[in-house]
Write a structure and sequence with these properties.
Blueprint lengths: L3 E11 L4 E10 L2 E3 L9 E4 L4 E4 L1 E6 L12 H10 L2 E6 L10 H14 L3 E2 L17 H6 L4 E3 L8 H12 L5 E4 L4 H4 L4 E2 L2 H6 L3 E2 L2 H17 L3 E3 L5 H13 L3 E5 L1 H5 L21 H12 L5 E2 L8 H4 L16 H10 L6 H16 L16 E11 L17 E11 L2 E5 L2 E2 L2
Helix pairs in contact: 1-2, 4-7, 7-8, 8-10
The chain binds zinc ion.
């Protein structure tokens, strides 16, 4: 590993500094340094034609360890993340055992430290065992470093319990409760979005209302408590509009969208591709357009992959038997560049903000998200916005259930620098 690196001639896109210009960037001893302060013999990387940005931060990842190592481990997930340009990811709590106490949180942090590929900011469970009955040990997990709590995969169905969680979290400062907005009764048995396409395909649907009812309820509880609410993977136009109004009102709410909800619609399910079976389901072109507008205007704050690895036996089955979810760490940046930035629907600066600066703020990940300034920890990605590639297995992820298989994407990660070290060089993982 070189002690020092000079990234020469790249386009530096740094939302935290409001900066978009061609410049050299120096890295030494784990930190950003002025290029003229680099020691002799620094490794020089020609970055002309590349974009240099703060390392990406994924606020919504499933690393599956402990308990689901047949689908992913912390190490394989972190390698997928590094190859996707991420320097930090937030693994969700729905592991086995559930991350509902400090011991599991520390285990995941230690596994990531041993892998040395990216930082993890584990999300703690809101309720013990994700059972929705009693609050988990929030205080103990905050001490272990947790800043976001979620029962993702399930909604906190009991409104009194969510009220207590939002109120209790206030005692810890900038701690957010992140909700998977889905009414379990309304979506029971649903395989896809309920609409014209579900009728034609003969699959049971999940109506938009199963999400919107929970979004409305949760915003009311955020108003009641003054607590900090984060809404995961929004899928419907109505949800976006409610968040827009809540923000205008001054509620402390943030929202997320996934790359797959920004790219696909329920019409794509005509192939019965189980990799497009996700939760919440892909909705209509109007919903997708509202998600894109909400992301562009800042109503939706962050892009989270909801990277959800599954072993083949849970995906290569009949549609109604398949587990919901797609992997996403290795394709997220290219999907956003191809589908939103390239057509001019989203500025590159806003894309990087939503994939790095804003999620770093949500997670309290002070080392991440920029600015790219001397003295800051060197967390960087360099990508080629013009390189095209076809998504196909194998992946660095242990799983292969990608909704993007077969798609041609534009934009490829070339280098990822994590704590000053090149963990991905020329598109290949170094460890
Ligand atoms: Zn979820």
């Amino acid at each position: 590993m070189p002690e020092a690196i000079l990234l020469r001639g790249g386009r530096v896109v740094d939302p935290a500094a409001g900066r978009d210009e061609v410049a050299d960037v120096g890295v030494a001893e784990g930190r950003i340094v002025p290029p003229d302060a680099l020691p002799a013999g620094a490794l020089e990387l020609d970055c002309s034609g590349l974009v240099i940005a703060p390392g990406l931060v994924d606020p919504h990842t499933h690393l599956r360890q402990p308990g689901g190592e047949d689908a992913e481990t912390v190490e394989t997930g972190c390698r997928a993340a590094a190859l996707g340009g991420y320097t930090a990811v937030a693994p969700m709590a729905n592991t086995d055992p559930v991350a509902d106490d400090a011991a599991v949180i520390r285990e995941v942090i230690d596994l990531a430290a041993a892998a040395g590929l990216c930082d993890v900011y584990p999300v703690g469970a809101v309720t013990r065992g994700l059972a929705g009955e009693d609050l988990a040990e929030l205080g103990e997990m905050v001490e272990a470093g947790v800043r976001v709590f979620s029962d993702d995969g399930r909604v906190v169905a009991n409104p009194q319990l969510l009220r207590n969680a939002l109120t209790y979290a206030l005692a810890f400062g900038e701690v957010a409760i992140a909700e998977h907005c889905e009414d379990p009764a309304l979506s029971e048995g649903g395989q896809m979005h309920e609409g014209q396409h579900s009728a034609v395909l003969g699959l049971q649907g999940k109506p938009r209302e199963s999400e919107e009812i929970v979004v409305a309820r949760d915003l009311a509880l955020a108003r009641l408590t003054g607590g900090r609410l984060h809404l995961l993977h929004l899928s419907s136009a109505g949800s976006v509009e409610m968040v827009r109004r809540a923000k205008a009102e001054g509620l402390r709410v943030t929202a997320e969208v996934t790359p797959h909800h920004l790219v696909f619609t329920d019409a794509d399910l005509v192939t019965y591709d189980t990799n497009l079976k996700v939760n919440p389901p892909l909705r209509t072109a109007e919903d997708r357009a509202a998600l894109r507008r909400g992301l562009a205007d800042g109503t939706i704050d962050v892009i989270g992959t909801d990277h959800a690895p599954h072993p083949v036996e849970r995906k290569e089955v009949e549609f109604d038997q398949a587990a919901p979810g797609t992997i996403g760490l290795e394709t997220a940046l290219a999907a956003v560049l191809t589908e939103l930035v390239e057509p001019g629907e989203l500025s590159l600066l806003r894309a990087i903000e939503a994939m790095s600066t804003a999620p770093a703020r949500l997670l309290g990940a002070a080392d991440h998200g920029g600015p790219i300034e001397p003295g800051r920890p060197a967390m960087l990605v360099a990508f080629d916005p013009a390189a095209t590639w076809v998504v196909e297995p194998p992946f660095a992820s242990r799983s292969r259930n990608s909704a993007f298989i077969g798609r041609t994407l534009r934009g490829r990660v070339v280098h990822t620098i994590y704590r000053g070290e090149l963990v991905v060089a020329d598109g290949k993982a170094e460890r």
